[in-house]
User: Fold this.
Amino acid sequence: MRIEIVEGDITGRPVDAVVNAANSSLLGGGGVDGAIHRAAGPELLAACRELRATTLQDGLPVGAAVATPGFGLAARWVIHTVGPNRHAGQTNPALLASCFTECLRVAEGLGVRSLAFPAVGAGVYGWAARQVAQVAFDAVRSYAARSAEGGVELVEFVLFGPETAAVFRDVLEGAA
Assistant:
């Protein structure tokens, strides 16, 4: 599994699936979540409302993942995950790691070969970019070591600003 760092807008990435750093309601929000909902169009909100009305009546739990079609995105799929909120006392790195591994598990089940992650948990949820990068890379590498050939081949970390991208590059190069 190849890992790449990309600075830019996740909504335009030419990958099979993008990961949405969602809130548990799945009904849109700010940051990456809002950008993905805007770019995908109203069908994404309708699909998320359907999930809430059926299988996820209590919302998507922290660390879990679920997929919807990508609708207006370049990506065929959106894989939604809810990062732990440090400000709400959710400080266990295993919850954060679960976001990445569960997204990979869902992606593999969909036949996804390329997947783009944002910095899940960073920003408004209070996790430092360096810690997110360390947890994310460890989770991705661990998943890759356990998974069969023919699964996800490319994992992109698509980061909005140069500062976060530099931190992720530094952590990736330091771990190589």
Remarks:
- Helices lie at 31-40, 42-53, 93-110, 129-146, 162-175.
